[in-house]
């Protein structure tokens, strides 16, 4: 069940009930962000992240010794997992290894306690695994690509999505690029959504072969932007809006308004330390209309 965003920003975060062991453990040593600092961050922004992490299968990047240590990308439950985390079975795989889901702030804080530094949800809810409610176009600049070229790619994707009757929302990845996300009405299955996303990426590469590439080949990416449509397959994930990244700088994948897209805001501009301040200063979440804008894929293919 999705929680609506608070009408007023005075809504206080719920009180924390999860016990943290080693609250002073440094997860981002260079930035001074501890396990407790991460728990405080998620408690403050819970209302904003909830719709993107609640009630979905989650892949998690766990870093028990912080971002400098070993990293484990996990799609399934582990031994001794917290009771605040829900185990869910993929209906397509009865008796398979259970997936991980959360439904409230305690669940999110249990992830923090388990050293989860990145949250990567599916684009479909656990109530309907086969009908994605979001499409993610992941913009991946190759070497030697300028930031304005990345912004141009995002705006072109926005235009193409809108031309096919979808709404487009943009967020920084917290890494090197941008993600353009379209809310979907859950009328289409993964195959249809993937075909549509691939069509969009292929059309961009065909129209501007010097700027865009829609095939994975790393070698050919130099100087070009890879339009990564592959987040849109059953079982694929993309980092959640408002999730932290396990990279130096403690950046957060941050929803922004299209008007904010500029050279002032790079892909890792907003961080664990600055994002709560940003949200306090905004009158509304930049993605507050996200779910209301959900639409089905049109009959026409993307172009
Ligand atoms: P950037 O802007 O730096 O590209 P990104 O989050 O978009 O950041 P990508 O490398 O483009 O990173 O996307 C990788 C995606 O693949 C992640 O979002 C994640 O959901 C998924 N993924 C699959 N396997 C892994 C893995 N072993 N480690 C990290 N991510 C993985
Ligand atoms: Mn990317
Ligand atoms: Mn990618």
TrEMBL record:
Origin superkingdom:
Bacteria
Q: What is this protein called?
A: DNA ligase (ATP)
Which stretch of the full sequence is covered here? 515 to 817 of 817
